[in-house]
Amino acid sequence: MIEPLERLIEVLARLPGLGRRSAERIALRLARDRNRALTDELIAALTELRTRVAQCRLCGGITTAEANPCAICTDPRRDPGILCVVEDPADIAAIEASGAFTGRYHALLGRLSAVRGEGRHHLRADELFRRVESEHIEEVVLALDTDAESEATARWLAEHLAALRVKTSRIACGLPVGSGIAYSDPQTLEQAIRRRVPL
Amino acid sequence: MIEPLERLIEVLARLPGLGRRSAERIALRLARDRNRALTDELIAALTELRTRVAQCRLCGGITTAEANPCAICTDPRRDPGILCVVEDPADIAAIEASGAFTGRYHALLGRLSAVRGEGRHHLRADELFRRVESEHIEEVVLALDTDAESEATARWLAEHLAALRVKTSRIACGLPVGSGIAYSDPQTLEQAIRRRVPL
Questions:
Q1: Which domains does chain B have, with CATH numbers?
Q2: How far apart are CA B155 and CA B171, in angstroms?
Q3: How far is CA A30 from CA B47, B67, B133, B181, in A?
Q4: CB–CB contact B89 A27 (8 Å)
Q5: Residue B63 touches chain A, beta carbons under 8 Å
């Protein structure tokens, strides 16, 4: 493969969900385009991301430089007393799509990791504790992932939030809607049974 | 989703192999990066593709502006008497990976399509016929995909090549019907080239 194409493949392969083969396929598609229309559109969109997209100074979510704090943080219809804590801005988008949450968010942009040596200063935890006090938050909902590092992060956050005397909850863990018992992994089933709710 | 991000997602989703969800995931990954390092690398690699990558004026494959004709076309170790005809530069890369072909290539960059109304001038067919005569080609190996449009293109090319009295063969066994050259594994392609049959 020629060098400029090789370099593009190497960068593309670092994007989430793309491996070497899918990166090659995309690079070759862009390279065979004689008028470079798609490449130009991609460069323009990335440049716009670079110049216009910002991190919300309140929640850590994604917003534009012109709208900071973001549209959710400044929406008067959102419940100001409840904060949903997520790891990543992508999680905010997913929860918004569910329509089930009417409060505001706080993105940690990281998590505790003994393996990578990442402690409390690798996540926006102090910002969270400050917000809980200054914004008189009544409830914090932890919506973290369910692997070991996220579990440890959630437990650590819950301890600190308890000291601030704020109600802390955790989104439920269990069977995905529409899935079958027989096809669920043992860990999910264990959680689903352990966290069963009275009817 | 904020507008600059929405625009990037829309462009990304037009790349091969990416749907709306995978495009969202990539855009959010780029947006959450505070120093924009990955976005910058991507813009730089795409800009280099835009400025340095060219179409080989002989085979239609991918090369740089400085190396035109391409490294394969000008390689004195390649058999000058045999041409492998492919649809797309991606197919050249896949066949090269198989190591089974020692001649040179000719990329059609299109195919006959009654549905899209694309005839002989939508593919580099006249360039192929001219090359067969001027370069004294002894054998043309057709390595096209195996769907209906590619089959029709192969039959049409075989007819015209017969009139030029050049031996024409077609890669054969091993290619699952309905699949594409670029996504075949090297072993399958090696067999398909080795067992090519005269037309």
A1: 3-54 (1.10.8), 62-198 (3.40.1360.10)
A2: 13
A3: 11, 19, 32, 18
A4: no
A5: yes
Token duo for residue A76: 């008067």
Q: Is B110 on the interface with A (CB under 8 A)?
A: no
Residue with tokens 């460069």: A43
**CB atoms closer than 10 angstroms to residue A138:** 14
CB-based burial of residue B74 (10 Å sphere; 0-12 exposed, 13-18 middle, 19+ buried)?
Answer: middle
For B133-186, write each residue's pLDDT tens digit.
999 999 999 998 877 888 899 999 999 999 999 999 887 645 565 666 777 777
Do A5 and B34 make contact, defined as CB atoms within 8 angstroms?
A: no
- For residue B23, what are its two tokens? 């495009």
ipTM over 0.85? The verdict is no
Q: Supply the pTM of this predicted model.
A: 0.75
Q: Is B32 on the interface with A (CB under 8 A)?
A: yes
Place of tokens 């959680």: A191
Q: What are the structure tokens assigned to A186, written together?
A: 């043992």
d(CA B94, CA A25): 11
**Spatial distance between the Cα atoms of B1 and A194, rounded to a whole number of angstroms:** 36
CB A87 within 8 A of CB A144: yes
Give the nearest chain B residue to A109 (CA atoms): B32
Strand partners, A62: A55
Find out whether the peptide bond into B89 is cis, omega within 30 degrees of 0.
no
Q: What is the pLDDT of residues A111-134, one digit of tens each?
A: 898 888 888 888 999 999 999 999
